[in-house]
Design goal:
Layout (H helix, E strand, L loop, with lengths): L1 H30 L2 E4 L4 E3 L1 H12 L3 H24 L5 H22 L1 H33 L3
Antiparallel strand pairs: 1-2
């Protein structure tokens, strides 16, 4: 009987520890102002992206306001595109590239050429970090599953 009680207490403790660990991860995600998250993508709000850009590039308040407005318009354009086109289709990719190119041109007009190049560099560094994390994760899973 004592063994069953101890087993029940241990099970409850393990479950509560698991729930607490998951809630701390959720709280960290909320702190980054994530708007939407799926298994493969995370969408961060326009305001959060603009704040990060303002901090990284030391933008003025006026520039920050312009960038926030631009990101909000871009998000609306992309949402409209997703509603109208099949995600992943050639038409979708072409239109998305046009939206991104237009946005880049507008950002360059707002922040200037030097800060825009710094912004592009930080984007590429972020992409590289994501690739490295993904590669590491894949290697870890393959090792765990003993796949070559």
């Amino acid at each position: 009987m004592k063994k069953l009680v101890m087993l029940a207490v241990a099970t409850v403790f393990m479950c509560s520890a698991s729930v607490m660990a998951q809630s701390s991860v959720i709280n960290k995600v909320k702190e980054t102002k994530v708007v939407k998250q799926t298994e493969t993508t995370v969408v961060v709000s326009a305001k959060a992206r603009a704040e990060k850009m303002a901090k990284d590039l030391k933008l003025t308040d006026a520039q920050k306001t312009q960038v926030t407005s631009l990101f909000t318009k871009q998000d609306a354009s992309v949402a409209k595109l997703k509603a109208e086109s099949k995600v992943g289709s050639a038409d979708y990719k072409t239109k998305l590239a046009a939206i991104q190119k237009s946005g880049d041109e507008q950002i360059q007009n707002i922040v200037g050429k030097d800060k825009f190049q710094q912004y592009q560099g930080s984007l590429k560094a972020g992409e590289q970090q994501v690739k490295e994390k993904t590669t590491t994760k894949i290697k870890s899973v393959k090792t765990d599953l003993k796949i070559k």
